């Protein structure tokens, strides 16, 4: 590639990339300041390049500038969250990676790549506040799950409930393993509300639902003055003080944060991001995972020392396919629920329908069964009972039940084309991967072996909504 073409290409990249790029030489002079960085910091390129970066830092009141730190120490700083006030007085939050540029033995300067996450953080704070409000309303209104809300007469389910009831009498940490849709949060709430902590908060957080850059602040809180623009905000540990904190999908928590979580559990205090004071907390932690402990340990998805700290009481929730005798009771409960919600008067479900449902493998467990009943009742008129002809199981799970060497009949496939069948299976695997990762598109794409853009295209193709947005 000739130099002229290379320069054209680099210019187009700098103009169109959605990350801010700022490069200063070894004397602090700005050499590159792209359009995206202009939008983030609300400063013109001409103005920035006419001044020393040290002056810009003073004007914008930036503490602990990562560019200056790399300029002085010549060491890379990765994924650093920085808050400061732009020239218009608006607080912004960026996620920065800053690297020293070295040519041989010569230090050329420092390059910073910034992503504006102000909106993401604001939404995250709103979600946290909404969660607090819902928790407070729940505590006042009595809307909470208890053991009597758990449906199941099977031996496996009774054994799990009995263990949970014993766990509620202790303050020890609990580690719950159950497939997606088995009711891990229902079990966790029941343990809390049957314990001596039941007058204090129960707070749940899905560890796969938050960006790594924001997780620490949400978990441990932030302190005003710790960095420019920071506000005093208690983290989930402080909010759950004297109560219970549920960390759902603990295997999705970043390793660096797992180490800090372990310290909190061992020492009984938190330190807010940007702060120096230790804040005592008394929180019982319940951790859940939808992957087996052996799997997450072997794949290094959880620190062993953290796992052993959390796994004081171990509870495994059986999947629905291992307790099919509970299907009839669950159906009765869901029929009552959706009669009220849909203003219907469905009397019940036929014996043949129950037998039909028992033949299904229920990869989505109780949640899938509830959706099937909801879908069926939504399409009913004034029928008294649910009969097999009304029930439509998910094509993906239905096809997955069959062995590879089974003969598919045209009746089973409802005269669908091969492309349609393959599409059903592909859609099912995408949904399952998204559910497994808490709708983290990057992680789901990695599981499926495709890139993020390809997965986003397929989600749009199958009209699969991202529940993290």
UniProtKB/TrEMBL annotation:
PROSITE patterns: SIGMA54_INTERACT_1, SIGMA54_INTERACT_2, SIGMA54_INTERACT_4. The keyword Zinc does not apply. It comes from the Bacteria. CDD domains: AAA. Keywords: ATP-binding, Nucleotide-binding, Transcription, Transcription regulation. Residues 150-378 form the Sigma-54 factor interaction domain. SMART domains: AAA. The keyword Lipoprotein does not apply. This is Arginine utilization regulatory protein RocR. The gene is rocR.
């Amino acid at each position: 590639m000739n130099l002229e073409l290379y320069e054209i290409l680099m210019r187009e990249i700098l103009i169109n990339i959605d990350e801010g790029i700022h490069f200063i030489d070894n004397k602090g002079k700005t050499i590159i300041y792209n359009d995206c960085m202009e939008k983030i910091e609300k400063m013109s390129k001409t103005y920035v390049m006419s001044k020393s970066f040290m002056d810009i830092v003073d004007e914008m009141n930036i503490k602990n500038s990562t560019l200056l730190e790399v300029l002085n120490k010549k060491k890379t700083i990765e994924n650093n969250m920085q808050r400061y006030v732009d020239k218009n007085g608006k607080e912004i939050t960026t996620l920065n990676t800053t690297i020293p540029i070295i040519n041989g033995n010569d230090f050329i300067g420092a390059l910073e790549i910034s992503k504006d996450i102000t909106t993401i953080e604001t939404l995250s704070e709103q979600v946290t506040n909404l969660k607090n409000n819902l928790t407070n309303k729940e505590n006042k209104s009595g809307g909470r799950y208890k053991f009597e809300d758990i449906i199941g007469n099977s031996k496996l389910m009774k054994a799990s409930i009995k263990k949970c009831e014993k766990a509620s009498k202790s303050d020890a940490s609990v580690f719950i393993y159950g497939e997606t849709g088995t009711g891990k949060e229902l079990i966790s709430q029941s343990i809390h509300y049957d314990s001596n902590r039941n007058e204090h908060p129960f707070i749940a957080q899905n560890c796969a639902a938050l960006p790594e850059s924001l997780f620490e602040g949400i978990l441990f809180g932030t302190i005003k003055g710790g960095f420019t623009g920071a506000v005093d905000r208690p983290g989930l540990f402080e909010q759950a003080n004297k109560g219970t904190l549920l960390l759902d999908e603990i295997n999705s928590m970043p390793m660096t944060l797992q180490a800090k979580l372990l310290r909190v559990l061992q020492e009984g205090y938190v330190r807010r991001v940007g702060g120096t004071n230790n804040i005592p907390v008394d929180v019982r932690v319940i951790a859940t995972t939808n992957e087996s402990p052996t799997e997450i340990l072997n794949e290094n998805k959880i620190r062993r020392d953290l796992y052993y700290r959390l796994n004081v009481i171990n509870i495994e929730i059986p999947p629905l396919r291992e307790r099919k005798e509970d299907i009839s009771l669950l159906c009765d409960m869901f029929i009552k629920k959706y009669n009220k919600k849909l203003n219907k008067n469905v009397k019940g479900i036929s014996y043949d329908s129950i037998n039909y449902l028992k033949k299904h493998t229920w990869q989505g467990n109780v949640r899938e069964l509830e959706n099937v009943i909801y879908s069926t009742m939504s399409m009913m008129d004034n029928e008294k009972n649910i009969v097999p002809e009304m029930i439509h199981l998910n094509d993906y799970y239905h096809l997955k039940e069959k062995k590879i060497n089974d003969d598919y009949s045209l009746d089973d496939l409802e005269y669908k084309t091969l492309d349609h069948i393959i599409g059903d299976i592909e859609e099912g695997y995408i949904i399952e991967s998204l559910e497994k990762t808490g709708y983290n598109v990057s992680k789901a794409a990695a599981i499926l072996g495709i890139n993020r853009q390809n997965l986003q295209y397929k989600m749009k193709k199958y009209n699969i909504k991202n529940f993290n947005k």
